[in-house]
């Protein structure tokens, strides 16, 4: 289905953000983007480049494939323990 990977990545980002107890604004700051961009990502409306996926993963301290796979157990654990 077209756009499914985009939606999966958005769900992953939202789950990580919520697990960390961060607002969209605080999460956006951590990622180095604007809050409205994070909202668009979470809704699956934004199309990211692979470089952006890599940059976000680095900012979150996780493997980029974790964002794309939707396997969030490790990502959520790391995000909860990361300094804010």
Would you kindly provide a written description of the structure presented here, covering whatever features stand out?
By secondary structure, the chain is mostly helical. The protein has one domain (4-78): 434 Repressor (Amino-terminal Domain) (Orthogonal Bundle). It is 69% helix and 0% strand. The protein has 6 helices and no strands. The chain has helices at 4-19, 24-31, 35-42, 50-60, 64-69, 73-81. Helix 1 (4-19) runs parallel beside helix 6 (73-81). The longest helix has 16 residues, at 4-19. The mean pLDDT is 86.
Helix/strand layout:
Blueprint: H1 4-19, H2 24-31, H3 35-42, H4 50-60, H5 64-69, H6 73-81
Number of domains: 1
Structural class: mainly alpha
CATH superfamily: lambda repressor-like DNA-binding domains
Please indicate the percent range of residues in DSSP E strands (runs of 2 or more).
Answer: under 5%
Structure annotation, total helices: 6
Instruction: Report the CATH C-level class.
Output: Mainly Alpha
Query: What's the quaternary structure here?
Result: single chain
**In one word, what is the shape?**
globular
| Strand segment count | 0
N-to-C SSE string, H for helix and E for strand: HHHHHH
Largest sheet, in brief, is: none
The radius of gyration computed from the alpha-carbon positions, rounded to a whole number of angstroms, is: 11 Å
Low-confidence spans: pLDDT under 50, at least 5 residues?
none
Protein name: Helix-turn-helix domain-containing protein
InterPro entries: Cro/C1-type_HTH (IPR001387), Lambda_DNA-bd_dom_sf (IPR010982), TransReg_Diox_bact_type (IPR050807)
Keywords: DNA-binding, Transcription, Transcription regulation
Pfam families: HTH_3
């Amino acid at each position: 289905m077209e756009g499914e990977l985009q939606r999966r990545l958005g769900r992953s980002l939202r789950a990580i953000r919520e697990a960390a107890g961060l607002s969209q604004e605080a999460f956006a700051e951590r990622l180095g983007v604007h809050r409205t961009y994070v909202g668009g990502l979470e809704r699956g409306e934004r199309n990211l480049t692979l470089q952006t996926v890599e940059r976000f993963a680095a900012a979150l301290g996780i493997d980029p494939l974790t964002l794309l796979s939707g396997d969030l157990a490790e990502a959520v654990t790391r995000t909860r323990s990361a300094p804010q």
